[in-house]
Design goal:
Layout (H helix, E strand, L loop, with lengths): L1 H40 L3 H33 L4 H24 L1 H9 L3 H33 L5 H19 L5 H25 L13 H33 L4 H37 L1 H38 L6 H16 L1 H16 L4 H25 L1 H26 L6 H28 L4 H21 L3 H12 L1
Helix pairs in contact: 1-6, 1-9, 2-3, 2-5, 2-8, 2-9, 3-8, 4-5, 5-7, 6-7, 8-9, 8-13, 8-14, 9-10, 9-11, 9-12, 10-11, 10-12, 10-15, 10-16, 11-14, 12-14, 13-14, 15-16
């Protein structure tokens, strides 16, 4: 029995390790895409139009995509009847198609509002709107298959498929030295459809059947809709904020939408490499633990939060040390100039500070999802979104693009604090509040000190690649040593890993 448990643990470790490797490769491809796009298009009005339309279509389908995954994972783990799942999916997609058709008819006033009267922006945006809309539709189906693969412990299949199609997109963009924004939109649509088709074919082999039967009277179907409804608004509010960020940044100057998009992509790389992978792995486990024992699930949540926060802090320290030179190598060529590079580095630093708050909030969200409570997360998202919107508008008026990001950062902090308070009231902590404060203090204070030190050095001293690597190793060594010296939860976890060997 002990040997079987050890084998299962080793298999889980290998799955997570492979997941991280694949995500690392995916992020390399994503960075290559950003680099090629920066070379081909710089920070022009045309690429601003592409990014705005991409965010609009993402906004339209995010209502379906995020909520579908949240509801389907518990449904798949409970082995809910396929007819019920099909009825749920048909309802969601029907509503999404109707909303999309309405938006197509209203696109011209929306484009004029975002364009600031720029006719080139309107023309390009109109050309690519339908293409990116269709692309996002197929992307939501990728969310369905991904949820299924997660529940059968095949986490890496969708990652391989996405990696292949993303690499294809980058190669098609790279070989076309005279690529237009319209060409970029077309290959984006084609590779997204290809990804959905590949995952559909593989999921069918693993038993994910599609039935055309529906049962709208089924009680399970109604229960799924009750859980799903709040997630629509939660996801929608988040996307409203992203859309408002695009709108506000478009008002602060040409090219700022693209800078904001690149900064989001850089932070997305950091987020996807560690955080998203671990959350993908942990959510089904938390769902199972909740069904077995609430106390066990609470302790698992605490340990997982500490572990995720530790990884995030390491990546923040590393980014502040290495980020400027990294962005210089990645972006500073072609039509992307040094002024844009400095702006991108500053924006990325502001975004990366918000990662610890987001990861704590997101993992607590998943705990609420696992116990079937989406109302609490919805209320939390509403309040945070309002704060984000108001603070971003106010700060952007005199801080420009930095104000947009600061508004997001402030709302992330408030959102995390509110959901922790809700968790404490409804569920209760598995340990004392004093212990939580001690653990997070030893994680975050050294991280802030090391990050500020690195930022000051990068701001006042022009470092080469070798000097930057030395700085990065130095700051990371200090941070990790201080955290382990504290002999807190992370120290115990590392010690247990060493003792197992």
């Amino acid at each position: 029995m002990k040997q079987l448990k050890n084998n299962l643990k080793m298999r889980s470790f290998m799955q997570v390790a492979l997941m991280i490797v694949l995500s690392g490769l995916a992020q390399v491809v994503s960075l290559a895409k950003s680099s090629v796009m920066a070379t081909r298009f710089g920070t022009t009005v045309g690429i601003d139009a592409y990014n705005v339309i991409f965010n609009i279509t993402l906004f339209l389908f995010s209502f379906a995509a995020n909520g579908i995954t949240t509801v389907l994972i518990p449904a798949f783990t409970r082995k809910t009847n396929k007819v019920v799942i099909n009825t749920f999916l048909m309802t969601v997609y029907t509503g999404t198609i109707i909303i999309s058709l309405l938006f197509i008819g209203l696109r011209y006033p929306v484009l004029r509002y975002f364009s600031n009267g720029n006719l080139t922006f309107i023309s390009i945006a109109n050309d690519i709107f339908l293409i990116l809309l269709i692309s996002q539709f197929f992307n939501t189906y990728v969310g369905v298959t991904t949820a299924y693969f997660q529940c059968i412990d095949r986490f890496n299949i969708p990652k391989v498929s996405t990696l292949i199609t993303s690499l294809t997109l980058v190669l098609l963009l790279f070989i076309n030295k005279h690529a237009t924004v319209q060409y970029l939109a077309i290959i984006t649509g084609l590779t997204t459809i290809a990804n959905a088709a590949i995952q559909r074919g593989i999921s069918f082999k693993y038993g994910m059947d599609i039935t055309f039967k529906v049962d709208f009277s089924n009680s399970e179907y109604r229960h799924m809709l009750q859980i799903y409804a709040p997630t629509i608004f939660s996801a929608g509010l988040y996307q409203v904020n992203l859309l408002m960020d695009s709108l506000l940044s478009s008002k602060t100057g040409a090219g700022n939408v693209t800078i904001l998009t690149y900064a989001n992509s850089i932070i997305g790389m950091i987020n996807s490499l560690i955080i998203t992978n671990l959350l993908i792995y942990l959510y089904p486990k938390i769902s199972v633990a909740v069904n077995e024992s609430l106390n066990k699930a609470k302790q698992k949540l605490f340990t997982s939060t500490m572990l995720l926060s530790f990884f995030v802090c390491i990546m923040i320290v590393g980014f502040f040390s290495l980020g400027k030179v990294f962005l210089q190598i990645l972006m500073l060529h072609g039509k992307f100039d040094n002024q844009s590079l400095i702006l991108l580095y500053m924006c990325s630093c502001l975004y990366v500070i918000g990662l610890p708050f987001n990861v704590i909030r997101d993992i607590i969200y998943r705990f609420f999802y696992a116990i079937g409570d989406t109302q609490s997360t919805f209320i939390n998202s509403v309040i945070a979104s309002i704060i984000n919107l108001v603070t971003s508008i106010i700060l952007a008026s005199f801080l420009g693009i930095y104000g947009v990001i600061l508004g997001t950062l402030i709302s992330s902090v408030v959102s995390m604090l509110m959901i922790i308070r809700k968790y404490y009231i409804k569920i209760g902590f598995s340990n004392s509040k004093k212990r939580y404060m001690q653990e997070f203090t030893w994680l975050f204070i050294p991280m802030l000190i090391c990050s500020i030190l690195s930022f000051c050095i990068n701001s006042y001293i022009s470092l080469g690649i070798l000097s930057t690597i030395v700085l990065t190793v130095f700051t990371l060594s200090i941070y990790i040593s201080v955290v382990l010296f504290s002999k807190g939860e992370i120290f115990k976890y590392v010690k247990s890993l060493v003792s197992r060997r």
